[in-house]
Design goal:
The model has no long low-confidence stretch (mean pLDDT 96). Helices cover 21% and strands 32% of the residues. The protein starts with 6 loop residues before the first strand and ends with a strand. It has 131 residues and is of the alpha/beta class.
């Protein structure tokens, strides 16, 4: 278990939008809802989990930007290239903008098959097919 991520906690600007966005996506990737409380929600896969917490109003004055110091993006494995395509189609049906669409699904480079997009706070997310 040494070195495996125990959990990741992300503060968000609108918990309801975050739950709507991340709930279906994480469940599509095999996560199960783990914890629920008034100011947060988490999903778990094996021994690791991802937590989303509503940021306090007083900390919402500076919006997130992935080019600032801190988290740039989260990347998850899909089952296959077909799974990347299925997730891409679901994202489009939900009105989520696909990043680097002119290079999709090879925006990560030749032979790197993935979809890139943003969550409601503009955190970049990547779903990549195994090689």
């Amino acid at each position: 278990m040494r070195g495996i991520i125990h959990h990741i906690e992300i503060y968000v600007s609108d918990l309801d939008k975050t739950i709507e966005f991340w709930g279906w996506l994480l469940e599509e990737l095999g996560y199960e809802q783990f914890q629920t409380w008034k100011q947060g929600r988490s999903w778990k896969l094996a021994d690791s989990y991802i937590v989303f917490v509503q940021a306090e109003e007083r900390f919402l004055d500076v919006p997130y930007h992935r080019k600032r110091v801190g988290l740039n993006h989260l990347a998850f494995y899909a089952d296959s290239r077909k799974h990347v395509d299925e997730v891409t189609n679901q994202l489009k049906e939900k009105g989520v903008t696909i990043l680097y669409e002119n290079k999709h699904p090879y925006a990560g480079g030749e032979g790197y098959y993935a979809v890139f997009f943003e969550d409601p706070d503009r955190i970049k997310v990547e779903i990549v097919a195994p090689k």
